[in-house]
Amino acid sequence: MGSPPPESREVLLQRAQAIAGRPLSWIADRLGVEVPPDLRRAKGWIGQLLEAELGATGGPRAQHDFPELGIELKTLPVTPQGKVRETTYVCTAPLDGSMKATWEECWVRRKLNCVLWLPIAGDSATPPGNRIVGSPLLWQPSAEEEAVLQKDWEALSEMISLGELWQLDARKGIALQIRPKAASASDMTWMLDDQAEWVQANPRGFYLRTHFTQTLVDQNFSRSRSNTA
Predict the structure, then answer these.
(1) pLDDT band per the 50, 70, 90 thresholds, residue 220
(2) β pairing state of 176-180 and 204-208
(3) For the ranges 2-16, 111-125, 126-140, 149-163, which has the lowest average pLDDT?
(4) CB 28: neighbour CB atoms within 10 A?
(5) Angstrom distance (rounded) from CA 101 to CA 98
(6) Measured in whole angstroms, how far is the alpha carbon of residue 56 from the centre of its chain?
(7) d(Cα 129, Cα 126) in Å, to the nearest integer?
(8) DSSP 8-state symbol, 167
(9) Distance from C-alpha of 176 to C-alpha of 206, rounded to nearest angstrom
């Protein structure tokens, strides 16, 4: 049984602050959830555990994790020294022509409009239950950050709309990139290619680069240190 939905941003942030410094096993015990020995067959376990603890109700539907508050929850795997370990998935990149035409309307912007970041400290050898929840950051992009994200999204979405999937590799984009998003290489979806022909391709997703999220972590930790100095 998880927590009820938080009635305000303040309540959500208080809940997140209350579990900062706790191992995931402590949260799992509170909720009566079994801790997997590793994440190879339980890749979404950490996110689902924290969603239950914090009262997220969005689930897998196309809405925010906290729909009443318009807030997205993102876990951020970091080393014990605070170095971001991997890119952050944002949302699916539609290849079938259904992507919104403008940045103002697109799901990437809505997803990133307000994010509760929760660093999860540990390395690949750390058992899931021993990984530690870090200090939360409730983040909204600055004008400069949004300008970079918008420029990346517009360039990437134009390549999708033109059917130039062969150009969509992980090197494109400064803060935002497109990468394969599928459980296996055999997963396929339909898209229009550059000859306006329907072809099958592996699903893709929008991801935030590690250097972008590393900046958020560094700025947050710097503020925390200066506030306690």
Answers:
(1) confident
(2) antiparallel
(3) 149-163
(4) 19
(5) 9
(6) 14
(7) 8
(8) G
(9) 7
92, containing H or E segment = strand 88-93
How far apart, in Å, are the Cα atoms of 216 and each of 50, 72, 78? Answer: 20, 16, 12
pLDDT at residue 115 tops 50: yes
Tokens 């870090």 belong to which residue? 134
For 24-47, give the DSSP string.
HHHHHHHHT-PPPS-STT-TTHHH
Structural domains of the chain in order of their starting residue, each with its CATH number: 9-228 (3.40.600.10)
**Which residues contact residue 149 at a Cβ distance below 8 angstroms, ignoring those fewer than 6 apart?**
108, 109, 112, 141, 175, 176
The CA-atom distances, in angstroms, between 211 and each of 50, 83, 91, 119 are 24, 10, 19, 15
Of 64-73, 85-94, 181-190, 205-214, the one with minimum mean pLDDT is: 181-190
**Residue 35: what pLDDT?**
96
Residues facing residue 178 across a β-bridge: 206
110: its two tokens = 């809505």
**In this structure, how many other beta carbons lie within 10 angstroms of the beta carbon of residue 179?**
15
182 and 203 in contact (C-beta within 8 Å)? yes
Where are the alpha helices (H) located in the chain, listed in sequence order?
Answer: 9-19, 24-31, 45-54, 107-112, 143-161, 210-228
